[in-house]
């Protein structure tokens, strides 16, 4: 089992930045694929960014590309999401997820609230 704990959310003004952190514990492996998702009230949960544990390749939703950066510190079993140029539409609960089997995201954190004011 993998446990994920997000932190770093908060209130920020439009145009500002935040860095989210996700600490992983349990049966983690360097090959585990990690990702960030978000869900705003009344909307479906959507993919934001992902990173491959084996290759380090990163993937971004169109809404995040050019503004957000996903990275990992493998020594600390932590994945980060640096969010720059934040917009009010980025307001959502952000969730960290892990895919240990290259099939589906089986493990999820509790989420951290990000609120961007106009």
The helicity comes to under 10%
Strand content: over 45%
- Topology as a string of helices (H) and strands (E): EEEEEEEEEEE
Largest sheet: 7 strands, mixed
The 3D shape can be described as globular
Rg over alpha carbons:
13 Å
DSSP strand tally? 11
Structural class: mainly beta
Number of helices, where a helix is a run of at least 4 consecutive DSSP H or I residues: 0
Poorly predicted regions: none
Report the span from N to C terminus: 40 Å
Mean pLDDT: 94
Summarize the structure in words.
This protein is an all-beta fold and 118 residues long. It is built from no helices and eleven strands. Strands 2, 4, 5, 6, 9, 10 and 11 form a seven-stranded mixed sheet that branches. Strands 1-3-8-7 form a four-stranded antiparallel sheet, with no helix packed on it. Strand 4 (33-39) and strand 5 (46-51) form a beta hairpin.
Question: How do the strands and helices of this protein lay out in sequence?
Answer:
Elements lengths: L1 E6 L2 E4 L4 E9 L6 E7 L6 E6 L6 E3 L7 E6 L4 E6 L8 E8 L7 E2 L3 E6 L1
Parallel strand pairs: 2-11
Antiparallel strand pairs: 1-3, 3-8, 4-5, 4-9, 5-6, 7-8, 9-10, 9-11
């Amino acid at each position: 089992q993998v446990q994920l704990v997000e932190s770093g959310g908060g209130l920020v003004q439009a145009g500002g930045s935040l860095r989210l952190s996700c600490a992983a514990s349990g049966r983690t492996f360097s090959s585990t694929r990690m990702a960030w998702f978000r869900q705003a009230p009344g909307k479906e949960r959507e993919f934001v960014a992902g990173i491959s544990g084996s290759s380090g390749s990163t993937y971004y939703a169109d809404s995040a590309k050019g503004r957000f950066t996903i990275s990992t510190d493998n020594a600390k079993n932590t994945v980060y999401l640096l969010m720059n140029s934040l917009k009010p539409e980025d307001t959502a609960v952000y969730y960290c997820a892990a895919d240990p089997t290259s099939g589906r995201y089986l493990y999820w954190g509790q989420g951290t609230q990000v609120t961007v004011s106009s």
